[in-house]
Write a structure and sequence with these properties.
The protein is α+β, with helices and mostly antiparallel strands. It has helices at residues 2-21, 26-29, 43-54, 65-75, 89-97, 107-112, 170-183, 185-198, 207-216, 226-234, 238-246, 280-289, 293-302, 316-319, 332-336, 338-348, and strands spanning 31-36, 57-62, 83-87, 125-137, 221-225, 247-250, 266-273, 306-307. The chain folds into 2 domains: 27-129 and 267-314, D-Maltodextrin-Binding Protein, domain 2 (3-Layer(aba) Sandwich), CATH 3.40.190.10; 130-264 and 332-348, 3-Layer(aba) Sandwich (D-Maltodextrin-Binding Protein, domain 2), CATH 3.40.190.10. The structure holds fe (ii) ion.
Length: 351
């Protein structure tokens, strides 16, 4: 049997060799089509860098995560897209659930990206992370009194003081998904009920709107992703920097005073190779390129996120927020618990 297999193995290698040398499908080998939910001008440098490094021409479509997912579902196997780039593990999970991704095995990706930031079967990979932090008004909340844990936001002492964006926001769903995993569904739901009891107003707006509401004193507390805070800090508008100056932040669930606390909830921006990708090899090369230090720096700095690759410098403004211990929960769990998270919020009356 072994002897019979040998010629076939040789044939496969020979064809692979021809493809690598560019004798098979030369046109397809030089292109890559990306659908990206990121739209940061600094991503241009990232894409140019990939083309310079590989000679692969890169075409991209930019739209919201929802729009791209709808488009991919509609295009089906006729889609020209090779790679989907989105923010938040919740969106990666939606693409995974709809079987839009293919499994990728890459020693480069597996070595450089910690296991908790990628899908166990290689359906998607996280390239940058963000933390969801407590934001408080420094005039109305003394630093020493500010909530130290997500759980503290449900304390009745904050009645009428809390602003939150909608529970259907993927960021709040992912946080709830992590709490369900860590605390159990019952306690997580009780926490949500406590938040609702503390609302200063009904949920509305995005993270930046919540931060502004804290700065104006409409509420004392909120939760926001780190990059929204840094964006205001770095803004060229005086009014934005004034907002940033009004607020303090806390990375929740650090050790003290609760020893062995689980750490701050974090999430990923990530990408996967699409099931019907016409250029899958180029797609994997692109994902591997994203891990190069220069690409990691660009990818993370574009949206003030933390690079996943070890040893890549964090943006100085982001660094000023401070170091913290992150919850080491595998981020694919956030997607898996998403439906339960929404139901728990619904039961708690968190709109
Ligand atoms: Fe965002």
């Amino acid at each position: 049997m072994k002897n019979l297999m040998r010629p076939f193995a040789f044939l496969v290698l020979a064809v692979a060799g021809l493809a690598a040398a560019g004798f098979v499908q030369p046109a397809a080998a030089s292109e890559l089509n990306i659908y990206s939910a990121r739209h940061y001008s600094s991503d241009d440098a990232l894409y140019d860098g990939f083309t310079r490094a590989t000679g692969i021409k890169l075409n991209r479509v930019e739209a919201s995560g929802d729009q791209l997912l709808a488009r991919l579902r509609q295009e089906g196997r006729n889609s020209p897209a090779d790679v989907l780039v989105v923010v938040d593990a919740g969106n990666l999970w939606l693409a995974e659930r709809d079987r839009l991704f293919r499994s990728v095995r890459s020693a480069t990706l597996e070595k450089a990206i910690p296991a908790r930031f990628r899908h166990p079967d290689g359906l998607w990979f996280g390239f940058a992370t963000r933390a969801r932090v407590v934001v408080y008004n420094k005039d109305t909340v003394a630093a020493a009194d500010a909530p130290r844990r997500y759980e503290d936001l449900a304390n009745p002492r904050w009645k009428g003081k809390l602003c939150m964006r909608s529970s259907s926001s993927v960021y709040n769903l992912s946080l709830m998904a992590s709490l369900i995993h860590r605390l159990g569904e019952e306690k997580a739901e009780a926490w949500a009920r406590g938040l609702v009891a503390n609302f200063a107003r009904d949920p509305k707006g995005g993270d930046t709107d919540q931060i502004r509401a804290v700065a104006t004193g409409e509420c004392a507390l909120t939760l926001a992703n780190t990059y929204y805070v840094v964006r205001l800090m770095k803004s060229d508008k005086d009014a934005d920097r004034a907002v940033a100056a009004k607020i303090g932040i806390v990375f929740p669930n650090q050790d003290a005073p609760n020893q062995n606390d689980r750490g701050t909830h974090i999430n990923v921006s990530g990408a996967g190779v699409l099931a019907h990708a016409p250029n899958p090899e180029n797609a994997v090369r692109f994902l591997e390129y994203l891990l190069r230090p220069e690409a990691q720096a660009l990818f993370a700095a574009a949206n003030n996120e933390y690079p996943v690759a070890i040893g890549v410098a964090v943006d100085p403004a982001l660094k000023r927020l401070g170091d913290f211990k992150a919850d080491d929960l595998a981020v694919h769990v956030l997607g898996e618990n998403r439906a339960r998270a929404q139901k728990a919020y619904d039961r708690a009356g968190f709109k």
